[in-house]
Design goal:
Elements: E1 2-5, H1 12-23, E2 26-29, H2 30-37, H3 40-48, H4 54-67, E3 74-77, H5 83-92, E4 102-107, H6 110-120, H7 127-150, E5 155-159, H8 164-180
Parallel strand pairs: 1-3, 1-4, 2-3, 4-5
Helix pairs in contact: 1-8
Bound molecules: BIS(adenosine)-5'-tetraphosphate.
């Protein structure tokens, strides 16, 4: 399993889908799973840029991993978003006979993020909500990366600024190295 971590607008979903399509893997997006539930409570949190309850997110992610049992590699995008989720995943994966091969961290400057999300214009892409989501990302991500590093899981930074194709090529290269190594 490959994890995609990055601030809102960094291209996690775009790159996760591209990578999965190219390699015959499965893309699992926590945000998309949540939007698909049409759950009113989750929806309210998401439109404010807040984290949705762990119980719901964990259940959705666990079920999605379970449905992908015949797929060689999974690309998990937007999960974990806090340390508790990161620990839950480590406990959950052996039940599915999976492990984390690499964590890809997509780095993109704030001005570029603002530009991308303005173009996309999703309901949670207002200035105020983007600021809340970015703050949450900055507060919650480092402990997750430190935790995974402490377990010996490769955490690889990738420059997410550039064309979709350029970023994809870089990610593919980093993943090929991680899967070989
Ligand atoms: P997500 O759906 O994960 O939304 P996101 O962080 O904005 O990333 P997304 O993947 O959609 O955007 P991307 O960067 O690919 O989460 C939404 C909400 O769900 C969260 O705020 C939270 O409320 C909730 N949630 C999700 N996961 C949760 C969890 N684990 N626990 C609790 N709550 C959770 O792309 C953005 C835009 O950039 C796109 O329009 C794209 O076309 C463009 N783009 C991408 N790459 C580009 C490039 N190279 N150049 C130019 N534009 C590019």
């Amino acid at each position: 399993m490959i994890l995609f971590v990055g601030p809102p607008g960094s291209g996690k979903s775009v790159q996760g889908q591209l990578l999965s399509a190219r390699n015959g893997w499965r893309w699992i997006s926590a945000g998309q799973l949540l939007r698909d539930t049409k759950d009113p409570a989750a929806y309210e949190h998401m439109t404010k840029g807040e984290m949705v309850d762990n119980d719901l997110v964990n259940r959705l992610v666990g079920e999605a991993i379970g449905r992908a049992k015949d797929i060689v590699h999974l690309v998990l995008d937007g999960y974990p978003r806090e340390l508790e989720q990161a620990k839950w995943l480590i406990e959950e994966l052996p039940k599915h006979e999976r492990s984390i091969a690499a964590v890809i961290v997509l780095n993109v400057p704030n001005e570029e993020i603002a530009r991308r999300l303005k173009i996309r214009g999703r309901l949670d892409d207002t200035d105020e909500v983007i600021a809340a989501r970015t703050k949450l990302y900055n507060d919650e991500t480092q402990p997750i990366l430190d935790y995974y590093r402490s377990l010996g899981i490769p955490v690889r930074d990738v420059n997410g600024f550039g064309s979709v194709g350029q970023v994809h090529d870089h990610i593919q290269q980093v993943i090929d190295e991680s899967l070989q190594g």
